[in-house]
UniProtKB/TrEMBL annotation:
Keywords: Monooxygenase, Oxidoreductase. PANTHER family: MONOOXYGENASE, PUTATIVE (AFU_ORTHOLOGUE AFUA_6G14510)-RELATED. This is FAD-dependent monooxygenase. It comes from Amycolatopsis minnesotensis. The keyword Secreted does not apply. Residues 2-325 form the FAD-binding domain. InterPro entries: FAD-bd, FAD-dep_Monooxygenase_BioMet, FAD/NAD-bd_sf. It comes from the Bacteria. GO terms for molecular function: monooxygenase activity.
């Protein structure tokens, strides 16, 4: 049996590993000239770690350094809007890990034979019978996995009438600042913009910034430093010490709900199926869940029944997580002074258990 994976990001490579470990022949088509991940830091939450455990890769990631769950959300003056019980989150749900995206890709790549990798291969069309037309010719497989991201060629081929990704109204910057002390992982909300920082095992600090902006607009480091100059410490210092060329900016898109993730012998996975806002940090974790679930169901039940089971289990779950992610970040992007004042007054009064209940479905997944 052969699985052809379209897309060599985290989800696609994880799917390739999952099928390879089950004895399938795998081939990964990646448009870029090499398999790597352009990005900054990445928090792997307990459910993502369990998916990596299913691939035998969880312990290798843990050995690189464990991380704490998010401490909560602050106002721009540093006072707390939401304060999480970090110890209780770890006790209830498990461990978090922070890693550079490229480091995770390297870890998964190492579990695959070199012969399975075909970089520099652009996919032009995917057919429901398992045929893929690409820049290197035509390949047919028993199963095709569309793991080719938010602007998926696989999805466009087989779901041509489905609305495309929609811009959610805010853009995001990601960077890694040099080593410096920070008080855990936290996010700060202003009006229509926010800043988050996550310490990495080597002392560097992964930072992400989001702000309301027209799609396609671009902002450099000087403007970012000015924008956040009066926010609480250590935000100005993190921006002042980061280099200009460390900043990556991407507009934020999400995908409208699909009615199915499968068509014939083809399954969508990760952002190709359910691109979501980054507000819960679940994008990569959901892709990892997709990968191990797809391999398990198809290998156990056969392609047809396995794809039906994959769709039955993964679509409701991922669409729930996407909806909660959208809801979680919405108030951070309010711009009305009365509304943001109401938000800042109300959030500290809510029970801490409210946050935990909202994310419990995501964190408690197991294969």
């Amino acid at each position: 049996m052969k699985a052809l994976i379209v897309g060599g990001g985290i989800g696609g490579l994880a799917a390739a590993v999952a099928f390879h470990q089950r004895g399938w022949e795998v081939e990964v088509l990646e448009r870029a000239p090499e398999f790597t991940e352009i990005g900054a830091g990445l928090s792997i939450q307990p459910n993502g770690l369990r998916a990596l455990d299913a691939l035998g890769l969880g312990e290798a990631l843990r050995s690189g350094g464990l991380a704490d769950p998010p401490s909560g959300i602050r106002r721009t003056n540093g006072s707390w809007l939401i304060r999480n019980d970090v110890a209780d989150l770890k006790r209830r749900f498990g461990q978090w890990v922070t890693v550079h995206r490229a480091g995770l890709v390297d870890l998964v790549l190492a579990a695959l034979p070199a012969r399975a990798l075909r970089p520099g291969t652009a996919v032009r069309q995917v057919r429901p019978d398992g045929t893929v037309l690409h820049s290197g010719g035509t390949t047919t497989a028993d199963l095709v996995v569309g793991a080719d991201g938010v602007h998926s060629a696989t999805r466009r081929s087989l779901w041509p009438d489905v609305p495309g990704p929609r811009y959610v109204g805010y853009t995001a910057w990601r960077l890694i600042a040099p080593p410096q002390p920070v008080d855990g992982s936290a996010e700060t909300w202003g009006r229509g913009q926010r800043f988050g920082h996550v310490p990495m095992p080597d002392g560097r600090v992964y930072c992400y910034l989001m702000a309301n902006a027209p799609s396609g607009s671009r902002t450099g480091m000087a403007d970012l430093r000015d924008r956040f100059a009066r926010w609480h410490d250590p935000i100005p210092a993190l921006l002042n010490t980061a280099s200009e060329d460390s900043v990556l900016q991407h507009d934020t898109y999400e995908l409208p709900n699909l009615r199915t993730y499968v068509s014939g012998k083809v399954a969508l996975l990760g952002d190709a199926a359910h691109a979501m806002t980054p507000n819960l940090g679940q994008g990569a974790c959901q892709a990892l869940e997709d990968a191990v679930t797809l391999a398990s169901t198809v290998d156990t039940l056969g392609v047809r029944a396995g794809l039906a089971e994959y769709d039955r289990t993964r679509r409701p779950r991922t669409q729930l997580v996407a909806r909660r992610s959208r809801q979680a970040g919405g108030p951070a992007h309010w711009t009305s002074p009365p509304l943001t004042a109401l938000r800042d007054a109300a959030l500290p009064l809510l029970p801490s258990s409210l946050f935990e209940r909202s994310i419990t479905p995501a964190y408690t997944w197991a294969i």
